[in-house]
Design goal:
45% of the residues lie in helices and 18% in strands. By secondary structure, the protein is an alpha/beta fold. Strands 6, 7, 8, 9, 10, 11 and 13 form a 7-stranded mixed beta sheet that branches. A 6-stranded parallel beta sheet has the order 2-1-3-4-5-12, with helices on both faces. The chain folds into 2 domains: 42-154 and 283-308, Response regulator (Rossmann fold, 3-Layer(aba) Sandwich); 157-280 and 320-341, Rossmann fold (3-Layer(aba) Sandwich).
Length: 351
């Protein structure tokens, strides 16, 4: 409003009206200043309608169409939506700054639960949680927890141990290897378990060091890293490549070596070379977590989900199973039962 028009209005108003208008203007200004509220205030739903809606968000390091790590988390999110009637949302967020911004944005919109799918979301979630006490932040891996933040860890090492045993038994060169996107503690631990399984099956097996290609979703770099491991002598390759896994499988196919899947069942990959997969069954864990939050019973902690809870499995490709000797399949089956029963404790790093 221009100064001239405002002067004209004021000139025609009673003194009390002027005071009332000034009071209203003051309230409006103060309201505008408070629009950037503190985290704890922003986390509270602003309407009764919002309070009645259970909201869950998922952050992943890559595309949820990767048929692997990110896809299994999205499947868990869909289970939350279906079984609990939750409002759900998801987005890619990699790197501390993007992760923090995404977490804060969801909390400010009144989301009750924000799941960061990976070790890298744990520390950031703990820090953001202090500003938003009405939102729970949970990462799928990580060592830290607080009142409204924590982690749930999939004991994928169990499946990777079996993958290592199978790799050592089918290798013709006497060498096996691995390819991974980053050397996150959670990834390193699964690959150590793969090595332990291989050594258990064949103490003389050679382990080619893991090749880290360092870029989420970079299929070309994943393929190059796989070619390097194959060139070093490995003829069975396991990966922790997330949505760049196709690069690993493509290199294996071109070089005529065996590939092993992880996280999701990747046995049906178009390459046709995936002999078996160490898998995570995420739905039960995701739904259990969401129920705790929805009921207001969540307590910050690090929860472990393993084979005994149906969260981890090792699945041999039924199409390629006929190529395996009966004694190898028997070894895998018997070892799996030992792991499930607790008779065999698969090594895992503490982090």
């Amino acid at each position: 409003m221009s100064a001239a028009i405002l002067t004209g209005i004021v000139a025609g108003m009673h003194h009390k009206s002027i005071l009332a208008m000034a009071a209203i203007a003051t309230i409006s200004v103060l309201s505008g200043c408070n629009s950037g509220s503190t985290g704890s205030e922003a986390a509270k739903p602003s309407t009764d309608s919002a309070k009645s809606t259970f909201k869950v968000a998922l952050l992943t390091p890559g595309k949820v169409s990767d048929a692997g790590w990110n896809a299994l988390a999205y499947d868990g999110l869909q289970a939350i939506q279906k079984e609990l009637g939750a409002e759900v949302a998801n987005q890619e967020a990699a790197g501390p700054d993007k992760i923090k911004d995404a977490m804060r944005a969801y909390a400010q919109k009144g989301f009750n639960l924000v799941i960061g799918h990976g070790f890298e979301y744990n520390e950031v979630g703990i820090k953001v949680a202090t500003d938003f006490p009405n939102t729970v932040f949970v990462s799928s891996s990580g060592p830290n927890s607080s009142k409204n933040a924590g982690a749930f860890r999939f004991y994928l090492e169990q499946g990777c141990y079996l993958a290592g045993m199978l790799a050592a038994k089918v290798s013709k060169t006497g060498a096996v290897g691995s390819v991974a996107v980053q050397n996150y503690p959670s990834i390193v631990s699964t690959l150590k378990a793969f090595e332990a399984g291989a050594k258990a099956a064949n103490p003389k097996i050679k382990i080619i060091p893991t090749s880290y290609f360092g870029a989420e979703g970079d299929i070309a770099k994943a393929k190059q890293s796989t070619e390097q491991v194959i060139a070093a002598g490995a003829d069975v390759i396991i990966h922790q490549a997330n949505d760049a896994a196709q690069g690993v499988f493509d290199a294996c196919k071109e070089k005529g070596v065996v590939g092993l899947g992880t996280n999701a069942d990747q046995n049906a990959n178009s390459s046709g070379i995936v002999l078996a997969s160490a898998t995570i069954v995420a739905r039960p864990a995701f739904v259990e977590l969401a129920k705790q939050v929805q009921a207001g019973k969540y307590v910050g902690s690090v929860q472990l989900f393993d084979m005994s809870k149906g969260a981890i499995d090792f699945v041999i490709n039924p199409t390629l199973a006929k190529t395996l000797p009966a004694d190898v399949i028997k070894l895998i089956d018997e070892t799996k039962e030992k792991i499930k029963s607790g008779k065999l404790i698969v090594p895992k790093d503490n982090f």
